[in-house]
Amino acid sequence: MNHLSVPARPPDVAQVRARLGHAEQSYRHARYPELLALLPGLLDAACEARATAPGRAADGLLVSGYGLVALVLVKVGQGELAWLAADRGLAVATAAADPWLAAAATVPLCQALRASGRLRPAVEAAVVAAHRIGPGRSDAAPAAGPAVRGALLIQAALAAAGRGDARAADELLDRAEEAARAADPGGADGGGFGGAGFGRAAVEAARVVAGSALGQVTAATVRHERLIADDEWRWLPPEHRAAYLLDVARLHASAGDGLRAGRAVLDAERTARSEVHDRPAARELVGVVARSATAPAALTRLAATLGVT
């Protein structure tokens, strides 16, 4: 990919922003095949716009573009490539000397680090970035500042839970809950794509996933049932809800409950089809659940459709 050549009429920042907004909506609805085809051209356009009109706005678009590439690569099981893309986005933000932009870039970086098994660096990166935009800092704070900070704390908590550190995970999630009280649950503007969809429901979902990672099966199951009965559950983007339901399916599968695990997978497919059909980790989970004697018949049919029986 050559980012040095500039076309005769390079895209302007407004055009790239519109294209990026469409791509972000596609991500929230888990349209991964569409995004894989769209993102290389979008990233080229963001680089070209920044080359011809340098500034904070263009930097933010490029950071968001790299972050979105990283998130999609995580979804399709390419953790190492995701880490490289996210690291490029963080490099752009760091060069801009903007702590808020760097914080937004750190969210997909931490997801990529977690996906590639780098849990300690994920905790450290998220905690440092969250500290730099702490609640006492008001200089040029974007509207989505609390959401970005909360998203960072969630990433740190999930990485800590993955390492078996229950105390750190609980503390970080308590801090994320504080951020949720100040955040707009539907807001994604101002802080890049890093804080999209953050709110109380996102924190509760993270508590369930962290509890599952820590082996707290009963408590996590009770918390899950309470979450999905809450109206705020519907505020989460379809991608987030479907990905979370797959984590819940893993929770039930670990407890040997094939029926509930299968139902959670089927709910995830109804919520965002591509989250199940186009993610290698999800297809592997479908195969595991399908081998349970108590798996729903519809799950068994799904496994056959995906070729994972």
- Beta-strand content bin: under 5%
Radius of gyration: 19 Å
How many β-strand runs?
0
Number of helices: 15
Approximately how much helix is present in the residues? over 70%
Query: How would a textbook summarize the main sheet?
Result: none
Low-confidence stretches: 185-192
CATH evolutionary superfamily of the largest domain: Tetratricopeptide repeat domain
Q: What's the CATH architecture name of the largest domain?
A: Alpha Horseshoe
* CATH topology category name of the largest domain: Serine Threonine Protein Phosphatase 5, Tetratricopeptide repeat
Name the quaternary structure: single chain
Report mean pLDDT, rounded to a whole number: 90
Order of helices and strands: HHHHHHHHHHHHHHH
- What is the rounded distance between the termini? 39 Å
- The total number of structural domains is 2
Q: According to CATH, what is the class of the largest domain?
A: Mainly Alpha
Organism: Micromonospora carbonacea
Protein name: XRE family transcriptional regulator
What's the short story on this structure?
It comes from Micromonospora carbonacea. It is built from 15 helices and no strands.
Note down, in words, how this protein is organized.
It comes from Micromonospora carbonacea. This is XRE family transcriptional regulator. It is globular, with a radius of gyration of 19 Å. It contains 15 helices and no strands. It starts with 12 loop residues before the first helix and ends with a helix. It has 309 residues and is mostly helical. It has two domains: 13-236, Alpha Horseshoe (Serine Threonine Protein Phosphatase 5, Tetratricopeptide repeat), CATH 1.25.40.10; 237-309, no CATH class. Helices cover 72% and strands 0% of the residues. Helix 3 (56-75) packs parallel to helix 5 and helix 10 (217-228) runs antiparallel to helix 11. The chain has helices spanning 13-28, 32-52, 56-75, 79-95, 99-115, 119-132, 145-162, 166-181, 200-213, 217-228, 238-254, 258-271, 273-277, 280-290, 297-306.
